[in-house]
Amino acid sequence: MKQHPKKNIAIIGATSPSGKSIAEKSGNDNLLTLTYRDARLLPEQFKNKSNIKLLHYDLENKTPPEISIFKQCDIVIWTAHIKHADEKKQLTLNTKAIQSFLSIVKQTNIRRFIYLSSGGSIYGPPFVAPIVETHPLKPVTPYGRTKLAIENILIDAHKKTGMELAILRPGNIYGEDSLTGRSKGIIASYINSSLNNESFTIIGNSLNIRDYIYIQDLVEAVKFAVDSSRKFLIWNVGTGIGHSVEYIMHYITEMTHLKPSIIHHKKLTTKEIPVNILNINRICQETPWRYNVSLEQGLEVLLKPLIKEKK
Prior knowledge:
- By secondary structure, this protein is α/β, with parallel strands linked by helices.
- The chain is about 35% helix and about 20% strand.
- The chain has 9 helices and 14 strands.
- The protein is globular.
């Protein structure tokens, strides 16, 4: 990739699985302000580095963040998301956090905002697959509806203030954190249930198809969003290939010879979405980005240590 001048980047949610991976790949090339909510989740490599500033930032605090901390930042990468069982609470907490941060942007050097949305939940039931970015947005889950609300707030801010905006809509993200118990989703849950001989619950139809993206491929897409000359962009970030829950379960079991103690089935409380595959033509046309890791390759990377240990 072409070399660019060093930037001053704030990553909001740097201890989330996605934020951590983005920070790890950005740390050698940029000045970083990394926000965290729980100091126990801070990786050692983020500490005591001259180019990294660590900041405790509680997104639920109604007071806007300290302007001086972000005064020199050029770019914000927002990976944080506050989860809450109550949909109204989740929506309110996340939208208020974004609005609070946006209230200080004019008083800083922040020129570009990069938001990790969700290609897996923001579209809702597709009328065509793979799904393009212009597909109607009709999410059926609280998470998806919250992501859409935040996108709308950011788009409105872009139009009113001229702040550059990049929205990335990744598919189902998986990676090394799948083995730590911190990541959610089918891959993390099935691996950990298999390792610990615990029960595993399939929510919805096991034949539902999703687009799975390896975390490092997402990180590369974020880097292109950071360096893009486009003042506004929305990119799906996936593989354009779908796999069923059942396929993933069989693949992991075949590789490890491990499986959960028992498998339960639970009906979805929202509308079933049988297929969610992302069209990635736009990001591939606008940048040199390509996904490098297939689902099978990614699973092998994750499971190789387990297989070696088992032998």
